[in-house]
Amino acid sequence: MEEDFFNILSERILANKFTEERLRDAVRHVVDNFHYKELNVADIVSYDRRVKLYTGAEFMNAQMNGTHCSKFEKRVIDGEIFWVLKSDLIKAGIK
Fold this sequence. Notes:
By secondary structure, this protein is an alpha+beta fold. 5% of the residues are buried. The protein has helices spanning 3-15, 20-33, 41-45, 56-64, 86-92; strands at residues 72-77, 80-85. The chain has a two-stranded antiparallel sheet with strand order 1-2.
């Protein structure tokens, strides 16, 4: 890759507030899944392991809108209870 690529990548990493862990995961993901001849900044910056955290009210609303409760998993973060979609955890590679 040329120097411009790394300059733009560095700018986008800072602008998107990547942590060291998120950058490491993004690069590993690209290395494991890259299929094209030339790497793009977006191949790294678009990687995201974050999942939506649902509050109790959002969890209940999702059920009232047809999403069965078995599709969710409970998570306790900093003493607060949240719900996450199991499918989002699988997509993000989170256990």
